[in-house]
Automatic annotation (TrEMBL):
The lineage of its organism: Bacteria, Pseudomonadati, Pseudomonadota, Alphaproteobacteria, Rhodobacterales. Residues 47-352 form the Transglycosylase SLT domain. GO terms for molecular function: peptidoglycan lytic transglycosylase activity. It comes from Salipiger aestuarii. This is Lytic murein transglycosylase. It comes from the Bacteria. The keyword Magnesium does not apply. One of its GO terms (biological process) is peptidoglycan catabolic process. InterPro entries: Lysozyme-like_dom_sf, MltB-like, MltB_2, PGBD-like_sf, SLT_2.
Length: 430
């Protein structure tokens, strides 16, 4: 319930706090709505058609795309004004100061009971159904079937999540007027090449709202590089073929450096004498060295003998506020698929649950969902001014930011937690 308060406003009137909040929200909505008003949309749509003809078509033609393929791809296509991060011509992007980031703000939600159990149970069914093709792909690429299943389950629910967006509408809109227009323009041209090669009919090319294609959610450029034929019919159909999806994921991971015979990582207990500031792939050392420092696998299980001399890194995605892991270079290959620590952990852990029947992570995620990206960016800038390498002031607490926070905490006599917390804002937010 709101607590009734009055606030001076403009020196004349006095409004209660809820009214102030409503006025601010209304102003913010107006600012965001301004670029997409109904009055200027027809003009922007005409500019979009001109951009397709004058900019995209010459590049497409130079890449071997026929006029017929081009026209079919954009037949009936208009801008999708509901997509995020759009900056129509003649407007200025309005960015709110307060931004939350779910990937880092609330890890417990990422590992919710429903998502974990669903990915595991259906994954086990898929492991039985596709045992043969998973085995073939593992022998060819070195990527374990359980890892492929983990990615497939996360990306599209093993093909059960509908993929409804028109790829050419999404990529066309984002290439024409998004905050990353050059990137999406390149992906649009790649999608035209996919259609020209006959992999899928242009009007049947479906994507996510971000332009990712099919069950493995490949961007078009990734499709051109890594899509594979897993069922032997001469095509790489990642929309309708489970076998092609499995082969394509394995091919992608192998091409990005998956090391056959190594695991992705292990949940561990970190003793108090091992600082969280030792996190990061650039501070990797043999698994045996971590063991000598007192790090143990959860449940007192020994590390596989084959892993002891292999390099591995400490990973603490929520600092001391969550589970800890020793991860191999294969963990960072998973991050090449999606640049999120939590994504890679989800995939690896679900894969282990599918194949080995493992239970939940033992470490518990504490509540870390109360920070804004803008606040974290302010803290990062303060750390940079002190000489710390935080990896950039982007408001995202990656491993460089986490350990820099830990080093600052240790240098000021605080207990190192290696994660941004609200009570640090006063000291680091100046």
């Amino acid at each position: 319930m709101w607590r009734k308060e009055t606030v001076a406003f403009g020196g004349r009137a006095r409004f209660d706090r809820p009214m102030m909040m409503m006025l601010r929200l209304a102003l913010l909505l107006c600012l965001f709505a301004a670029p997409a008003t109904a009055q200027n949309r027809p003009k922007v749509e005409r500019q979009f058609r001109g951009w397709l003809e004058q900019t995209i078509w010459p590049h497409a033609r130079a890449n071997g795309v026929s006029r017929q393929t081009f026209q079919t791809a954009f037949q009936g296509v208009s801008l999708n004004w509901d997509l995020p991060d759009l900056v129509p011509p003649g407007t200025v992007r309005v960015v709110p100061k307060a931004q939350r980031q779910a990937e880092f703000g609330a890890p417990s939600k990422y590992f919710s009971r429903g998502s974990m159990d669903a990915a595991t149970s259906v994954g086990r069914q898929m492991a039985r159904t596709h045992h043969a093709v998973l085995g073939r792909v593992e022998r060819a690429t070195g990527v374990p079937g359980r890892i492929i299943l983990g990615i497939w389950g996360r990306e599209s629910g093993y093909g059960r999540v509908p993929i409804r967006y028109d790829a050419f509408q999404v990529l066309g809109t984002k290439g024409f007027m998004s905050t990353r227009a050059p990137y999406f323009t390149g992906e649009l041209l790649a999608a035209l090449q996919i259609a020209q090669a006959g992999h899928v009919a242009p009007r049947a090319m479906k994507s996510s709202w971000a332009g990712a294609l099919g069950q493995p959610q490949f961007m078009p450029s990734s499709f051109l590089r890594y899509a594979a034929d897993g069922d032997g019919d001469g095509r790489a159909d990642i929309w309708n073929s489970d076998s092609d999806t499995i082969a394509s994921i394995g091919t992608y991971l192998a091409a990005h450096g998956w090391q056959a015979g190594r695991d992705w990582g292990f949940e561990v207990m970190v003793p108090p004498q091992v600082s969280c500031t030792l996190e990061g792939p650039d501070q990797g050392r043999p698994v045996a060295d971590w063991v000598d420092m007192g790090i143990q696998r959860i449940g007192a299980k020994p590390f596989p003998a084959s892993e002891l001399q292999g390099e591995a890194a400490l990973l603490m995605p929520a600092g001391t506020n969550g589970p800890a892991f020793i991860v191999t270079p294969n963990f960072y290959v998973l991050k090449d698929y999606n640049m999120s620590d939590l994504y890679a952990l989800f995939v690896g852990h679900v894969g282990d649950r599918i194949q080995y029947g493992m239970g939940d992570l033992i470490g518990r995620w504490r509540d870390t969902g109360k920070m804004y990206r803008s606040d974290i960016a302010t803290m990062q800038r303060a750390l940079i001014a002190m000489g710390h390498d935080v990896g950039g002031a982007d408001g995202l607490p990656g491993f460089k930011t986490r350990r820099s926070i830990g080093r600052w905490q240790e240098s000021t006599g605080r207990r190192a937690t290696c994660f941004p917390e609200p009570d640090m804002k006063a000291a680091l937010g100046r």
